[in-house]
Every structure is written in C-alpha cells, then in structure tokens.
Amino acid sequence: MRRVVIFAASLFALSACTVKPVTSTVPDSTVEVPASTPVAPASAQAPAAPEPVADGPCPYLESAAVADANGQRVTKVRISADKPHPACFFYRPDGTVQLTVRIYVGEPAVATAIVDEAAPRATSDPARSPQGWKGGSLSGEKGAVYAVAKDKVAVVVTSNQAQTIKARRIVEAVVTELGL
Question: 173 pLDDT exceeds 50?
Fold first, then answer.
C-alpha cells in the first residue's frame, strides 16, 4: 500500500508539471512584429549591373593604382550614372575593359544580393578582406571577381586577370579611400 501511495503521489507531481498546448484564437495574419525586430525582405534582388555612360576619371580610384594592381596600362576610364559612387570601367590599350569597380550603398539585403550574384558565397572561395567584410571570390578563363559586403555596402571588382589577389587589392584600396 505504501508503494501505491508513493507511486500515485509521483504521478500527481508529474501531471502538475506537464505543459498543456495553448490554442490561439488570433489568426496568424494579425500577429504583430515588435518595431525593434528587423524584418528583411524575403528575397532581395540585385539591381541591374551598371553601364558606362560618360568618360572618367574615376572619383575614388586612380588609373595608376589600377595599372599597378592589374598589371596593364589604362588608356581610358568611363563611369556610370550611379550615385553616390559611380561604377568605374578601366580600359586597356586594345579598347576592352580590363577592370570594373561597382559600389552599392543602400539596403543590407540588396548589398548581399549583389555580392551573391557576382561571386555566390555558397559556391565561391570565401572573401574576408578588408577586415569585417564578407563575400566571395572566383577566378576563371575570362578573369576574376572579388565581391564583399558589410552592412549596407557592397564592393565588387572584376578583372580580366585570373588572379583574385589583384581584384582584392583594388577592393581594399577603394574601401580605404572612401572610408567605407
């Protein structure tokens, strides 16, 4: 009898600790999100790639720095209409683009989408320079790309050279020059 009382008391104590499911009469669509909780867009898309619309110079990157980093002489520079920082297109002597620099400042989700479009972080080599920036780098037969984002800013450099180190050096120079 004593065992039955102890067993019954144990069951009673356990039943007091069980969690009962809570049902809500409020539809899911009326649940409010507190204002302090950031809500990111479900799927941010990268804007179209910039196009050159005017002759340069590039306001944040010298042609000599591009020539030194990329290893080719720069014969012409063109810029896009993007604000506050236009994309810069550096040309080689044969008239083809040797290097482009694209800077985006705006929504963090869009900055990430731009990086993922240029060098998908899931399939490219990790890019973590400058410090605090994250993205990807790729190289192939047609050249290299180094793309990173931090907060609401993205910087993407494409080069006709296969070495990503050249594109990375340009990204580092641009971030330093603009204080991004």
Answer: yes
Q: Where residue 22 falls among pLDDT bands split at 50, 70, 90? A: very low
pLDDT of residue 21: 39
Look-up: residue for tokens 């320079």?
Answer: 129
Sign of the four-CA dihedral 166, 139, 45, 121: negative
CA distances from 33 to 4, 36, 109 (A): 50, 8, 19
Look-up of token digits 């482009």: 100
Tokens linked to 144: 């290299």
**Greatest extent of the chain over all pairs of C-alpha atoms, in Å:** 101
The residue among 32 and 67 whose pLDDT is bigger is 67
Per-residue 3-state assignment (H helix, E strand, C coil) for 45-101:
CCCCCCCCCEECCCCCCCHHHHHHHHCCCCCEEEECCCCCCCCEEEECCCCCEEEEE
pTM equals: 0.74
